[in-house]
Automatic annotation (TrEMBL):
<dbReference type="InterPro" id="IPR013785">
    <property type="entry name" value="Aldolase_TIM"/>
</dbReference>
<comment type="pathway">
    <text>Cofactor biosynthesis; thiamine diphosphate biosynthesis.</text>
</comment>
<dbReference type="InterPro" id="IPR036206">
    <property type="entry name" value="ThiamineP_synth_sf"/>
</dbReference>
<keyword id="KW-0784">Thiamine biosynthesis</keyword>
<dbReference type="Pfam" id="PF02581">
    <property type="entry name" value="TMP-TENI"/>
</dbReference>
<dbReference type="InterPro" id="IPR022998">
    <property type="entry name" value="ThiamineP_synth_TenI"/>
</dbReference>
<feature type="domain" description="Thiamine phosphate synthase/TenI">
    <location>
        <begin position="56"/>
        <end position="175"/>
    </location>
</feature>
<protein>
    <submittedName>
        <fullName>Thiamine phosphate synthase</fullName>
    </submittedName>
</protein>
């Protein structure tokens, strides 16, 4: 199942941010809320999205198991090698648990712990990893050959996707999904279908 996963910028979300994600909700498959907000403020953001029609099935929370359970969400994401992810998956096999990874070894570890999928990156130059070299084509080939769905993250847009190495199940992005219109995201999906 190929997915487009929008990741929020790491900041306190305001109404303008939430309105944007509501606008693009039909073209994204998941919205990962990865924010420094207090739990109360995060609940406010979730309540706002849900009250305005954002599908509950498309919400993904970052590492806060209490919020996941309070809102009866199906998706939770963890930082690389966070042991909470492995424990949570073992105890809640019906919940989709994913993790960020930056090496083939970490992808293998996620697979060993039966996680549902991983983000792997960064695959292209990106502002959020300024000065850091992207993963090599050999690393990417090895990562996507592991028996777990692998999602590309880092520098994804309508141009870079044409050079995306094969084997990814989908893409995640922060700035692309934050800065682009619904139409531009539809164009990315058209490029993605060409890619797959």
């Amino acid at each position: 199942m190929s997915l487009f996963i929008a990741v929020t910028p790491y900041k306190d979300l305001d109404v303008a941010d939430l309105e944007h994600y509501l606008e693009i909700s039909e073209e994204i498959d998941l919205l990962l809320l990865r924010v420094p907000m207090t739990r109360d403020d995060l609940c406010w953001a979730l309540d706002y999205l849900l009250a305005h029609g954002f599908p509950q099935t498309k919400l993904m929370i970052h590492s806060d198991m209490a919020i996941l359970e309070k809102y009866d969400l199906n998706f939770i994401h963890f930082r690389e090698n966070d042991a909470h992810a492995f424990e949570y998956k073992k105890l809640h096999p019906h919940i989709s648990v994913s993790m960020s990874t930056h090496s083939v070894e970490r992808v293998k570890r996620a697979r060993e712990w039966s996680l549902d999928f991983v983000f792997f990156g960064h695959v292209f130059e990106t502002r959020s990893k300024h000065g850091l070299k992207p993963r090599s084509s050999k690393e990417i080939t090895n990562a996507v050959s592991i028996d777990i769905p692998v999602y590309a993250i880092g520098g994804i847009d309508t141009h870079s996707i044409k050079s995306l190495p094969h084997g990814f199940e989908g893409v995640c992005a922060i700035s692309f999904f934050r800065d682009r219109s619904l139409r531009e995201i539809q164009l990315l999906r058209e490029e993605w279908h060409t890619y797959v």
